[in-house]
């Protein structure tokens, strides 16, 4: 048996994945356990879950693999500061401490997380290789072209190549700072949404506007080539050297400063969203056509954060040259953990990919599941009122609730891996209801009213309601398709503009029809979605309609629920009508304490949530100077020992030099005895430890900032200026409009040892 643990961490969407003898046994994001959205921290809980599910202990692991090359990324970071110095010190001061404290010590951090019980070597796969592996190896194709697009890995921001059998080979890449992901995030920030979180909001806002700014974007911001490669004019941006995404020059180009978070949306934001979405789709289409010309293959696999742009994906499938498209469900950094693990199994160890029916992702249902006994015990402990139904009754009963326009929380089986709820942790509603979209947004999800909802439809009937091929497979909700003309209502859009388009009834399923007659489609089949498929069949039998609204089981700014506790709390904090966990059905009106006041408190809590803006590589500014409010016994014992030594040395010097009295000597000795006692009994030192930590924090912070300032202005700035004077520009920011392409060639090697190095 060969057991491989893949890890992604320290930027956003930390995750872990376990692969045993080539089979994906488990994969999960850390946020699902910690309840911190896009949690970037070391994925301790996700690792523990993966090992438990696989029945492994750390010492039984054969390989532990990290999803990128830390030292190569650090090189890019330093060269970026050299390119912009003396500008950029605030970013340097924010970023470097977290690198010195944690990100440069990945083996140490992983070793600690595994309890010091893993003794073998670590593997480091380049960021875009991890993305490419996550795209191709789980796909249903024996050979396929590969395209990855995201913000930035080490240096690469996009890559392309091909996968054949059990190997992938990347032949070209775009390099930082020229990044489609960061370009899209800059507009996300400018429109008042959160970077690395609100990009899908920008995509949902786009159909409300007109693409008026496409011209300025293509003329001023980027130089786009026919093959989808491009250069970004960095004078309009700050993500390379600052803590903001855009510069004042960007503000002037688009008529003023960025929208404040939670401020009313204006026509400008809608038009900007429409414009950058159109440019993004154009880049994705051109890149896909270029990859097809280079590889000549019929199938395409996508990964990277930009691959979550399901509107662009839909256009590639409908208008691009490829016959088939497969997108990694966890296309962002979380999927890198899975890709890295599969890369080791297939690429480094040479194991084949045996043929399978469908893909190898198992419906992306790779997270925790909870037994009937566990759910019952939880409900009994909470004093919840519930009914337990037989399987033969459950689906018909819940279908009846949906047909009566009730909103149902649905928790079944294993948790989804990736950002989409796929019928295991979902909130469901009747797509035929004209009011359901607003009800879900305002009373259940507590989010912006313009946000669209996705339909989950029986795969065999998808082509009746949407403009897709008969039997089209879209199990991961990553493709947008137009609503079929036969289901649209004629003349619906007369005169409506902006957010007024929300009030227009456009089709027979208005709750899932976006203002441009599109829908983010999930097809449901029995083999992957068992219970969810049976529910849709029961709803179809009762209503004749083969689809329902499927949105993630969470509220604004919270991750998708994982456990029965998470589901019950979300249920009680919203206006949801019913909750179904396994075969247990709960009605809101039957619960002790009700939910109205809790729902209002939740709305108040999240209605004023502010947007955090972070530039590239600043997602976890931990800093070198940290205060631990709950120090361990070891920390306290070391603190006591340090105090004892300090008092002893200083006391001996002072007493000898001054010839102090016997009374002073006794007092000094007592002062040294206190930490000695603390060394023996560490909890005694907790108050002194915290008091000294908080008292010394401002001084330590000032010293650390002073040291960093000297390094930046006395070392990096002169070196950077000299480099630029002699003509070396590490960021290669200058445009060459005469170039045919901006794709950089990439040479793959057979040097396996390089994967055991961090650089």
Brief summary of the model shown:
With 759 residues, the protein is an alpha/beta fold. Helix content is 41%, strand content 14%.
Largest sheet: 9 strands, mixed
Q: How far apart are the termini?
A: 29 Å
- Outline type: globular
What is the arithmetic mean of pLDDT?
88
User: Strand order of the main beta sheet, please?
Assistant: 13-21-20-14-15-19-16-18-17
Which regions have little confidence, pLDDT < 50, spanning 5+ residues? 595-624
CATH domain class of the domain at 372-592: Alpha Beta
Strand content: 5-15%
- What CATH calls the topology of the domain at 372-592 is DHBP synthase
What's the total number of strands?
A: 22
Count of separate DSSP helical elements? 23
Structural class: alpha/beta
Q: Into which percent range does the helicity of residues fall?
A: 40-55%
Please name the fourth-level CATH homologous superfamily of the domain at 372-592.
Carbamoyltransferase, C-terminal domain
Rg is: 28 Å
CATH architecture grouping of the domain at 372-592: Alpha-Beta Complex
């Amino acid at each position: 048996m060969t057991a491989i643990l893949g890890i992604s961490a320290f930027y956003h969407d930390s995750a872990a994945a376990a692969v045993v003898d080539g089979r994906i046994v488990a994969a999960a994001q850390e946020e699902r356990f910690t309840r911190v959205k896009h949690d970037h921290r070391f994925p301790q809980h996700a690792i523990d879950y993966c090992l438990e599910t696989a029945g492994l202990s750390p010492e039984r692991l054969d390989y532990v693999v990290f999803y990128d090359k830390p030292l190569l990324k650090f090189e890019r970071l330093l060269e970026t500061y050299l390119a912009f110095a003396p500008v950029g010190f605030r970013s340097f001061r924010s970023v470097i401490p977290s690198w010195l404290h944690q990100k440069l010590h990945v083996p140490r951090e992983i070793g600690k997380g595994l309890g010091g019980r893993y003794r073998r070597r670590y593997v480091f796969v380049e960021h875009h290789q991890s993305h490419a592996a996550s795209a191709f190896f789980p796909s249903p194709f024996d050979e396929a072209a590969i395209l990855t697009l995201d913000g930035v890995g080490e240096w690469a921001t996009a890559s392309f190549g091909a996968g054949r059998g059990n190997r992938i080979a990347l032949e070209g890449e775009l390099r930082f700072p020229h990044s489609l992901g960061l370009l899209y995030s800059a507009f996300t920030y400018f429109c008042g949404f959160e970077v690395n979180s609100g990009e899908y909001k920008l995509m949902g806002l786009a159909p409300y506007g007109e693409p008026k700014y496409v011209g300025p974007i293509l003329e001023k911001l980027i130089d786009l080539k026919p093959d989808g490669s491009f250069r970004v004019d960095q004078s309009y941006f700050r993500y390379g050297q600052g803590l903001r995404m855009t510069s004042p020059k960007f503000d002037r180009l688009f008529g003023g400063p960025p929208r404040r978070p939670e401020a009313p949306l204006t026509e400008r934001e809608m038009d900007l969203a429409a414009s950058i979405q159109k440019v993004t789709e154009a880049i994705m289409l051109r890149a896909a056509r270029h990859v097809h010309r280079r590889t000549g293959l019929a199938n395409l696999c996508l990964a990277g954060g930009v691959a979550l742009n399901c509107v662009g994906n839909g256009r590639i499938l409908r208008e691009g040259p490829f016959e088939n498209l497969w997108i990694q469900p966890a296309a962002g950094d979380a999927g890198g953990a899975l890709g890295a693990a599969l890369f080791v199994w297939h690429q480094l160890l040479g194991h084949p990919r045996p043929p399978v029916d469908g893909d190898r992702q198992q419906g992306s249902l790779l997270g925790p599941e909870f037994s009937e006994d566990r759910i019952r015990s939880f409900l009994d402990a909470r004093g919840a009122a519930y009914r337990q139904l037989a399987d033969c009754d459950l689906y018909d009963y819940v279908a009846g609730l949906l047909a009566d326009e009730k909103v149902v929380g649905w928790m079944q089986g294993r948790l989804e891996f990736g950002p989409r709820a796929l019928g295991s942790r979902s909130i469901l509603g009747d797509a035929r209801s004209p009011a359901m979209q607003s009800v879900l947004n305002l009373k259940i999800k507590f989010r912006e009213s313009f946000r669209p909802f996705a339909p989950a439809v029986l795969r065999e009937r998808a082509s009746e309601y949407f403009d897709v091929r008969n039997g089209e497979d879209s199990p991961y909700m990553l493709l947008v398709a137009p609503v079929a003309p036969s289901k649209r209502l004629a003349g619906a859009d007369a005169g409506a503009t902006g957010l007024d388009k929300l009030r227009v009834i456009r089709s027979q399923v208005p709750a899932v029809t976006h203002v441009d007659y599109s829908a983010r489609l999930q097809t449901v089949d029995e083999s992957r979605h068992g219970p969810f498929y049976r529910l849709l069949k029961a709803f179809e039998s009762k209503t004749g309609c083969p689809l329902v609204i499927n949105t993630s089981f969470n509220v604004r700014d919270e991750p998708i629920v994982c456990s029965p506790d998470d589901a019950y709390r979300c249920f009680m904090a919203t206006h949801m009508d019913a909750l179904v966990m396994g075969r247990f059905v709960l009605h809101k009106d039957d619960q002790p304490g009700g939910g109205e006041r809790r729902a209002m408190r939740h709305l108040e809590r999240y209605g004023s949530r502010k947007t955090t803006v972070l530039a590239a590589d600043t997602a976890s500014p931990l800093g070198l100077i940290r205060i631990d409010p709950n120090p361990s016994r070891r920390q306290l014992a070391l603190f006591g020992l340090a105090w004892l030594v300090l008092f002893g040395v200083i006391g001996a010097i002072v007493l000898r030099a001054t010839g102090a009295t016997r009374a002073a000597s006794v007092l000094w000795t007592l002062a040294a005895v206190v930490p000695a006692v603390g060394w023996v009994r560490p909890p005694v030192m907790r108050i002194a430890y915290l008091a000294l930590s908080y008292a010394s924090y401002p001084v330590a912070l000032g010293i650390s900032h002073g040291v960093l300032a000297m390094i930046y202005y006395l070392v990096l700035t002169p070196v950077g200026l000299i480099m630029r004077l002699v003509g070396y520009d590490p960021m290669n920011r200058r445009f060459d409009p005469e170039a045919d392409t901006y794709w950089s060639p990439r040479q793959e090697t057979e040097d396996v040892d390089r994967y055991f190095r961090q650089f």
